[in-house]
Design goal:
nine-stranded mixed beta sheet, alpha/beta, Spore Coat Polysaccharide Biosynthesis Protein SpsA, Chain A
């Protein structure tokens, strides 16, 4: 079978502390045909110096003011020429063999549009602190709020991006959820239990800590936009999470040692 080209985009802004580990995890993959681009939003820290260190290996990179993470990802995929797409945020990392495992599965299962796997939680120092609650989902379950997709591990077909992309720039947090619902409406999603493909870094300056309260309201926007009703599981889960917000914030800070 032809060897697909995998296009990976890293959106970044002022993440010099973690960026090098992200880059190295991509270049440490055992899959040869990777087109890797970094889209930096005009960082004021040492990010550009880190990027320049690896520039000869990159397909391309840019550091310029943008409208945020969603804009950076769209910009990256607009120039991508691969058969399979993925994005890896500048504070997360891949595990060895992730790309080759994803490609192998997609090649062997042509009806699957997106594949994902297990993911570790890691802290600022890179120590594993837990496991993302990944699980099999589909369009019906996504619409109910049962997401269970670690974005760091997802790989999807470029042809689907051409059909349903780009990301909606009005979303700050749930742009991936919005994309998953659109992909799931066109093709099968598959979770590969027992394969750990990435590490999700939880730290004090990350979006998950600093702006988690923006995620579920944005998911509800997708729900209502697509004809969802008020008396549905996703709305109930939103209000439950809202009620439990202090407890969830405490648990997250405890995990971070804050």
């Amino acid at each position: 079978m032809p060897t697909p080209l995998v296009s990976i985009v890293t959106p970044s802004f002022n993440q010099a502390r973690f960026l090098e580990a992200t880059i190295e995890s991509v270049f440490a993959q055992d899959y040869a045909r990777i087109e890797y681009a970094i889209v930096d939003g005009g960082s004021a820290d040492d990010s550009v110096d880190v990027i320049k260190k690896y520039a000869p290996k990159l397909a391309w990179w840019v550091s310029e003011k943008d409208s945020g993470q969603t804009d950076a990802i769209n910009k990256g995929f607009a120039r991508a020429s691969g058969d399979i797409f993925a994005w890896l945020n500048s504070d997360d990392t891949y595990e060895p063999g992730a790309v080759s495992a994803a490609v192998k599965y997609l090649q062997e299962h042509p009806s699957v549009g997106m594949v994902y796997a297990d993911c570790n939680y890691i802290n600022a120092e890179g120590r594993v602190t837990g496991k993302f609650p990944a699980a099999q989902t589909d369009l019906v379950r996504l619409r109910r709020g049962y997401v269970h997709i670690p974005q760091q591990t997802m790989f999807f077909r470029a042809e689907l991006w051409k059909q349903v992309g780009p990301l909606d720039p009005s979303f700050y947090f749930a742009m991936d959820y919005d994309l998953w619902t659109r992909i799931a409406a066109q093709a099968e999603l598959k979770y590969l239990r027992g394969q750990t493909w990435a590490n999700f870094r939880i730290h004090s300056s990350g979006k998950t800590v600093a702006a988690d309260d923006r995620c579920w309201p944005e998911m509800l926007r997708v729900h209502y936009r697509d004809g969802g009703k008020f008396f549905t599981p996703i709305v109930g889960r939103y209000y439950l999470r809202k009620a439990l917000a202090p407890l969830l914030a405490w648990r997250l800070k405890r995990r971070l040692g804050l």
